[in-house]
Design goal:
Elements lengths: L17 H14 L10 H24 L14 H13 L6 H15 L2 H10 L1 E2 L1 H28 L4 H23 L7 E2 L3
Antiparallel strand pairs: 1-2
Keywords: Cytoplasmic vesicle, Endoplasmic reticulum, ER-Golgi transport, Membrane, Protein transport, Receptor, Transmembrane, Transmembrane helix, Transport
Membrane topology: Multi-pass membrane protein
Protein name: ER lumen protein-retaining receptor
């Protein structure tokens, strides 16, 4: 007979922001609407579908399957303060004033700030589990590597997308403080805790 309370070894959503995951699901949904209008390759289509499916599966796990371990009391960031300004900006600054282009631009802008509910949750609780910090580090590294990709593409292909570059720089800047704490604490075997 198992207890209803999760043990430390059980699967848990403690420390993970469901709101950030919802924003990432919205990011990939709005970014990949071109699945209905154009076909590039089987690989491209498969990867887009995998991104969308994984983001919604994560949301399902947080809000349904592991709901008992999700810490909604600390996941209180008001996402409308991100979605509304990002929506307005995507209407004002985009490459082409068409529905798919505006939604793609919205996804780029929103991805740059979608991590804020997670960072807010960590700042509110004052600490994060090691696995959560590793997840955040690699999420930030993924965006930092995009900067390398854009530099590469500019020098070798002559391609430059100001919207994507600026959004990537904004997102990387948001991670800088976290990267510092990760390197100085987590990599040295200490738990990430923020000053009170």
């Amino acid at each position: 007979h198992r207890s209803c309370q999760p043990r430390a070894t059980d699967s848990t959503m403690a420390g993970i922001s469901g709101k950030s995951q919802l924003l990432f699901a919205l990011v990939f949904t709005t970014r990949y609407l071109d699945l209905f209008t154009s076909f590039i390759s089987l690989y491209n289509t498969s990867m887009k579908l995998i991104y969308i499916a994984c983001s919604y599966a994560t949301v399902y796990l947080i809000y349904m399957k592991f709901k008992a371990t999700y810490d909604g009391n600390h996941d209180t960031f008001r996402v409308e303060f991100l979605v509304v300004p990002v929506g307005g900006l995507s209407f004002l600054v985009n490459h082409d004033f068409s529905p798919l282009e505006i939604l793609w631009t919205f996804s780029i802008y929103l991805e740059s700030v979608a991590i804020l509910p997670q960072l807010f949750m960590i700042s509110k609780t004052g600490e994060a589990e090691t696995i959560t910090t590793h997840y955040l580090f690699f999420l930030g590294l993924y965006r930092a590597l995009y900067l390398v990709n854009w530099i590469w593409r500019y020098y070798f292909e002559g391609f430059f997308d100001l919207i994507a570059v600026v959004a990537g720089v904004v997102q990387t800047i948001l991670y800088c403080d976290f990267f510092y704490l990760y390197v100085t604490k987590v990599l040295k075997g200490k738990k990430l805790s923020l000053p009170a």
